[in-house]
Write a structure and sequence with these properties.
The chain is built from twelve helices and 13 strands. It is of the alpha/beta class. It has a domain of about 230 residues: Rossmann fold (3-Layer(aba) Sandwich), CATH 3.40.50.720. The strands form four sheets. Strands 3-2-1-4-5-6-11 form a seven-stranded parallel β-sheet, with helices on both faces. The longest helix is centred in the C-terminal third of the chain and has 27 residues. It is globular and about 55 Å long. About 45% of the residues are buried.
Amino acid sequence: MPTRKNPVALITGITGQDGSYLAEWLLAKGYAVHGIVRRVAMESPEVRLLRIAHLLPRLQLHAASLESYPSLFRVVSEIRPDECYHLAAQSFVSYSFEDEFSTLNTNINGTHYLLSAIKNAAPDCRFYFAGSSEMFGKARQVPQTELTPFHPRSAYGISKVAGYDLTRNYREAYGLFACAGILFNHESPRRGLEFVTRKISAAVGRICAGRQKNLHLGNLEARRDWGHARDYVQAMWMMLQQTQPDDFVVATGATHSVREFAELAFAAAGLDYRDYVSSDPEFYRPAEVDLLLGDAGKAHRVLGWRMECSFDQLVREMVEHDLQQARAQSRFEAADSAPSIPLYKKAS
């Protein structure tokens, strides 16, 4: 357990969905929160730091790269964190098929570099690795548990299996307090627009605002175990508060299809998804993962973790956010294009 009056946490991927929610959670717990960001993020904070803009006065950010061991070692040596949450990764599965090399290089080497830096510069630091349900891929059993064999079907999934094994190895070989969370799909209004759930909710907002006419998706029958990222980051923290390090599946235990998500999302805005959504083979993965369903029984028993946000609530929250975003954008564009009106008449 952390011994400082104000424990110090280091988050990679702090600018992402999970990183922003985790930073909020840790700040509320009284942590001093540090984040690793790419130098380019410092140069355009209005875009790249958007998710944590409301937290910036309370955060300490450090420019470093997952592809550079010296930069990671420098940050770890400087702050000597009590806890490190490694969330950063190239995490868009479809993109990992387009550029397998950078996905594998960044995700595997980044995890290895960070583990090594902690081992050498802050060996008492507790380490969390963000695993993924994509590690199961073509799963041999349903639901999937911590004992289910991995069968990844993308470079992303492969890179996460490697990171998981590295984490376990540093725990067993060097005595590092290192845990891996095998998190199933978790979404929120902060999800990137390239992910299918946010692609759907954003399309609902744009269609209602008259900015989009239809939506093309891939496999509508693919099923996922979807939860809320805000709930899942709490499980990350709980793992590092235990007396012994271990690995945990974090999931809702319920599965829904992409079609169901679209149906609920459009219905939340009073629309019928069938009028707007079509399946396009162009968006199918080369190796599809059809069904992922997690069993978080161990997390329930050992951590006491429970999800709070239901699937329906998650979908509604995302749609409501994107409806507001689309309306605000339309109002901004309308005001920007409106003719200027003189404040007074010129003398004749």
